[in-house]
């Protein structure tokens, strides 16, 4: 690249960071470096679903890109209404069907590694990737902002790099977020300082997730026509439920189960609480993830209906996750730094939308940074526009997502016959709305600098 208008460092090569790298690499005048803490770009062995709203954003990368994705999930994209999730009342010996969640367009389901692989394959050579680079902190000179002095990045291995714009896509345990909150705390009113600083660290949501992949062959050998081999099924029970659906062209069934301890929402996660969580005994509070034996894994779901038990019998082992979230932040940008994805709004997983929200963040960031009238001097304004248009939306999604879980775990007093409608209304933003309005507004705000965006 001959003379880039600025150099963007993306910290974190997860779904959000890689989507941003792919998007920005279409802007000929922006140089991109991706710094990833892990040795290689990889994803955990689990499924990820992308709702139509976010999938329509991915389609903007062109028909080839879309085709690659479609090949991985094995079915076509549609705009028709389709049954997406079959929900059962399963807290009884023989469960009953409660409702079918009808969505306009399908939930596109992937193996995470497949999805990641497609993004990686679209990174052009002009985008420089750096592995084993765990960011510790950054410094930007504010007096100089908007100015030319670079932002300095400091990595765990002692190395240092510079950039003009830093985007923290470094997930829930973000290193960029605490640095940014400290910067922000310096400039807010003294009585707001504590509240800003309280957003540095993630908080436990009271939710524990149980994740595994089940061999479809194994399940088929037991129950040749089991429903989860064909359809996305949700087995709902009081305070604990799970969902299961086929991925990787039917090779696996993705399993995600949840327990919700409502009284512990927003508490610090304690590995050794009185609540029996045998797998966490003796571990430190920092350890959010734990490997489970099959017996430990199925324990919270043992009272669910027989149909669910057939699925559980096929679990070999699994992983337990203490699901942490990020408080609603006072800002996701400061100077020439912004955060996106889980770093900005890690949310409960009950609407399967965290990755989708990071995809939307990425596309909006590309729209404001890549706009021809955005220069190094106007980057802070571009990032303020991103914050203005994305933060309220993703915060609302986070709230809706938590409510979905509470509804599915029968924690809200809703008559059974109204539950389907209530869950649908709370979720339909994911297929009935578009990012496009925000994109248009972003362009309008970038082009008309007389409009105040703060
Ligand atoms: C049980 C469960 C099920 C879910 N299911 C869905 C679903 O179906 N659909 C959906 O949309 N979402 C789902 N989500 C949420 C989704 O997984 C996340 O929202 C999404 O992965 C966030 O992407 P990200 O790129 O922001 O962060 P991450 O995917 O966490 O990526 C962050 C990257 O940054 C790197 N990194 C971290 N720290 C540093 C550092 N200091 N320096 C450099 N690199 C760093 C990490 O190694 C990682 O590669 C689910 C979540 C859970 C817990």
From TrEMBL:
* One MF annotation (Gene Ontology) recorded for this entry: oxidoreductase activity
**Cell membrane among keywords:** no
Task: Please indicate if the UniProt record lists Iron as a keyword.
Answer: no
Where in the numbering of this chain does the FAD-binding domain appear?
314-401
- A Pfam short name: FAD_binding_3
**InterPro entries xref list:** FAD-bd (IPR002938), FAD/NAD-bd_sf (IPR036188), FAD_monoxygenase (IPR051104)
Give the GO biological process terms: secondary metabolite biosynthetic process
Supply the name of the protein: FAD-binding domain-containing protein
Give the organism's phylogenetic lineage.
Eukaryota, Fungi, Dikarya, Basidiomycota, Agaricomycotina
């Amino acid at each position: 690249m001959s003379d880039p208008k600025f150099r963007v460092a993306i910290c974190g090569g997860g779904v959000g960071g890689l989507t941003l790298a792919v998007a920005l690499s279409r802007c000929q005048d922006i140089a991109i470096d991706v710094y990833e803490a892990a040795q290689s770009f990889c994803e955990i062995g689990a499924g990820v679903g992308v709702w139509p709203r976010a999938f329509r954003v991915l389609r903007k990368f062109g028909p080839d890109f879309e085709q690659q994705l479609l090949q991985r999930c094995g079915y076509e994209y549609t705009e028709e209404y389709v049954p997406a999730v079959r929900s059962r009342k399963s807290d009884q010996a023989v469960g009953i069907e409660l409702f079918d969640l009808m969505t306009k367009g399908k939930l596109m389901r992937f193996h995470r590694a497949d999805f990641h692989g497609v993004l990686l394959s679209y990174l052009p050579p002009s985008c420089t990737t750096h592995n084993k680079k765990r960011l510790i902190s950054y410094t930007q000179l504010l007096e100089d902002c908007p100015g030319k002095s670079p932002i300095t990045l400091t990595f765990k291995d002692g190395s240092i790099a510079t950039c003009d714009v830093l985007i923290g896509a470094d997930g829930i345990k973000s290193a960029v977020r605490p640095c940014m909150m400290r910067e922000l705390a310096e400039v807010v009113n003294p009585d707001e300082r504590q509240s800003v600083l309280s957003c540095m660290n993630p908080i436990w949501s009271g939710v524990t997730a149980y994740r595994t992949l089940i061999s479809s062959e194994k399940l088929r050998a037991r129950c040749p026509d089991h429903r989860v081999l064909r359809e996305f099924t949700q087995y709902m029970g009081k305070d604990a439920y799970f969902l299961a659906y086929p991925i990787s062209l039917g090779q696996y069934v993705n399993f995600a189960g949840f327990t919700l301890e409502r009284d512990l929402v927003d508490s610090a996660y304690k590995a050794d609480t009185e609540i029996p969580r045998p797998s966490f005994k003796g571990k430190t509070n920092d350890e959010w993830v734990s490997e489970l034996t099959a017996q430990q894994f199925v324990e919270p779901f043992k009272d669910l209906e027989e149909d669910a038990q057939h699925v559980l019998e096929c679990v070999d082992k699994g992983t337990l996750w203490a699901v942490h979230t990020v408080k609603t932040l006072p800002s996701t940008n400061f100077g020439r730094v912004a955060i996106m994805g889980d770093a900005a709004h890690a949310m409960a997983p009950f609407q399967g939308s965290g990755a989708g929200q990071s995809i939307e963040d990425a596309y909006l960031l590309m729209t404001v940074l890549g706009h021809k009238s955005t220069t190094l001097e106007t980057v802070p304004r571009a990032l303020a526009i991103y914050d203005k248009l994305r933060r309220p939306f993703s915060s609302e999604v986070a709230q809706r997502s938590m409510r979905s879980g509470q509804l599915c775990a029968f924690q809200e007093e809703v008559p059974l016959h109204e539950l389907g409608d209530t869950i649908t209304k709370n979720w339909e933003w994911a297929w009935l709305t578009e990012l496009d309005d925000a994109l248009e507004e972003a362009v309008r705000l970038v082009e008309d600098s007389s409009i105040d965006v703060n």
